[in-house]
Amino acid sequence: MSPSEDWRIRVFDSLSFPTLILDTEHRIVAANRKFLERKHIPEEMQIVGKTCRDIFRNGHDPDLPCLRNDCPLAQTIAQKTGHSLLRQIRQEDGRTRWEDRVFSPILDDRGEVSFVIESIRDVTKTKQLEIMFQGISEFMDRVIQSSPSPIVAADRKGQVLLMNRAAENLFGYRVEDVPELNIEALYPVGVAREIMKKLRDDSFGGHGKMPMTRVDIRTSSGELIPVEMTAAIIYEGDEEVATMGIYNDLRERLSIRRKLMEAQAQVVQSEKMASLGRLAAGVAHEINNPLTGILMFTGMALEKLPPGSSLRKTLHCILEDAERCRDIVKNLLVYSRQTSTRKEVFALNDLVEEGLRLIRDQKLLMHIDIHKDLCRDSIQVFADANKLKQVMINLIMNAIDAMAGRGTLTLRTYRNEHRDSGCIEVQDTGSGIAKEHLPRIFDPFYTTKAPGKGTGLGLSTAIGIVKDNNGSLTVKETGPNGTTFLLELPLVHAAENGFPDSIG
Ligand SMILES: Nc1ncnc2c1ncn2[C@@H]1O[C@H](COP(=O)(O)OP(=O)(O)OP(=O)(O)O)[C@@H](O)[C@H]1O
Ligand SMILES: [Mg+2]
After folding, report:
1. Per residue in 427-471, pLDDT tens?
2. pLDDT for 64
3. Does 303 reside within a domain?
4. Of 16, 412, 448, 466, which one's alpha carbon is 20 to 30 angstroms from that of 26?
5. Which positions fall inside the PAC domain (predicted)?
C-alpha cells in the first residue's frame, strides 16, 4: 500500500457517518468503520462483493426504490451527478429513525463513473424538529384561520401573505385572490401609507405597533366599511419582514348608535309636535267662533244686498278668505287630533277610488294621466276610512302640485306579506323633493309653496292620521323623475299591533 493510499483509507475510515463505496454493478467495494459498527458487521470482507440491496436486507420492501427506475444509485451512475434518498426506518425497538443516503459519483479519467460513494447520515433529530415545527405551524395556522377577528399579514412590499377566513369575509376576497393582492387595495387611497407611517413612529403606541385606530377599509366591490384596527410590524432580529393588521367591524355598533340617536331625535320631535298640537288646537278653537260669525254675517249681508250692488264682490272675497281660514282651522284640528277616531274594515282599492273621486271633478286633473295599478284581490285593512280619505287627498293634491298640472299620476295597491301590511303608492312624475327639504316635509307648517298656496299642514296631518292607525307613511323614492309616497296599513289581523319598525 502506497503512503497516499494509506492516507485515503484513513480519511475514509474516520468519516463520522457510515459510508460505502460501490461499483457500477451496485456491488460493495469498501465499507468504512462507522458503517461496520452501525450494521454490527465485524469484518469488511463479509460484505465486499455483495450488492447494497443484500446488505440493507429489505430487497422486498416495496418502499425501497432498488428495483425501480428511481433507484438513486442507478440514477447517480446514469446521470453522473449526486442523488439522495430520505428513508424512514422503523427500528426493532419500535422507534423511527430517518436516514439521508447521499450518493456521489467518482469519475475516472474519461469522465465515466467508476465508483459511487454512498454515505448515510442520521437526520432523525432534524426530521423530528421539522415535524414538530410543521405541527406548530399547522396549529398556528388553524388558530389564525379560526379567529373570529379578521387578520391580514403582508410582506415588506405590501404583498398580502395571509388573510384568514374572517378577513376574506370582511374584505370580500377569496383565498385564490390573495397572491395577487396588495395591501393598498384594502384601504382608500393613502390610508395604507398612513398606517405604515404610524407603525414606524415611536410616539404612536411604540415603534412597530399601532394601537386601536378607527379607519375605513375598502372591500373587493369598492364598498367602504368603518373598522377599528390594530397593526404591528413583524421583525426578524432588527429587520422588518412583514406587517399584520387585526380588524374589528364597526358597522353593527355604529348602526345601533345611529338608531339610538334617531330614536332620541324622534322623542324630542314628538314632544315638540305634541306641544305644537296643543297650541294649534287652542288657537283653532279660539278662531273657530269668530270665524263662524264672519261666515254667517257675511252670508246674511250678501242675502240682503240688491243683486247689482258693488259691495257683493267685496263680500264674496271676504267669504272666500273666511272659508279658507275655516279649512285651515279644520286641518289644524285634525293635525292636533282633536277629532275622534272610528275604525272599520275596508278595502284599500276602495280608499284609492274614493280619494280620486273626491277630486276628480276639479279641473286640476285635466292634463294629468291617471294610471291605476290596483291589486286584483281585495286587501282588507282596519283603520279610520274617513280620515284616511283625507290622507289620500293630501297625497294626491301634493302629487298634482308637484307636476304643475301635467304628468302621470300612478296609484298602486299591493300586499306586503312579509310585513303583514297593505300598501298604497302615490307616484307622480313631478319635480321631486330636494334633499335639503326631505327631512322637514312632515313638519307642520313646512311648505315650499308660495304664500297662500300651501299651509304646510297636508303631510303632517296625514302622518298623524296614519300613526293613529298603526301605519306608516314614507317617501319611497324621489328624484328629478318624480316622487313616490308609500302608505302602509296593517292588514285586518295585524291591525292591533302595527309594524315593529314603522317609521315616518
Ligand atoms: N309629491 C310631491 N312632490 C314634490 N314635493 C312634495 C310632494 N309632496 C310634498 N312635497 C313637499 O312637501 C312640502 C310639504 O307638503 P305638505 O302637504 O305638508 O304641505 P303643502 O302641500 O306645502 O301645503 P298644503 O298641503 O297645506 O297645501 C311641500 O310644500 C312640498 O315641498
Ligand atoms: Mg300638501
Report:
1. 999 999 999 999 999 988 899 988 777 888 899 889 988 998 999
2. 64
3. yes
4. 16
5. 83-135
Residues 184, 190: contact at Cβ < 8 Å?
A: no
3-state secondary structure 365-418: HCCEEEEEECCCCCCEEEECHHHHHHHHHHHHHHHHHHCCCCEEEEEEEEEEHH
pLDDT in tens, 49-59: 888 777 776 54
pLDDT digit string (tens) for 392-408?
989 999 999 999 889 99
> Are residue 403 and residue 419 in the same domain, yes or no?
yes
Q: Tell me: do 172 and 311 sit in the same domain.
A: no
Q: What is the pLDDT of residue 87?
A: 84
Q: Which three cell numbers stand for residue 139?
A: 396549529
Nearest one of 28, 249, 206 to 117, comparing CA atoms: 28
Query: Does residue 129 sit within a domain?
Result: no
Tell me how far the alpha carbon of residue 492 lies from the centroid of ligand 1, in angstroms. 30
**Structure-derived torsion over alpha carbons of residues 270, 272, 273, 279, reported in degrees to the nearest 10:** 150
The parent domain of residue 162 ranges over: 147-249
Residue 54 alpha carbon to ligand 1 centre in Å: 102
| Higher-confidence position of 224 and 358 | 224
pLDDT at 68: 63
Give residue 273 CA to ligand 1 midpoint distance, Å: 18
One domain for residues 347 and 481? yes
User: 487 CB under 6 A from ligand 1?
Assistant: no
Residue 130 lies in a domain: no
For residue 408, what are the β-bridge partners? 369
Pocket test for ligand 1, best of 368, 391, 424, 449 (most atoms within 8 A of CB): 449
The verdict on the CB of residue 444 being under 6 Å from ligand 1 is no
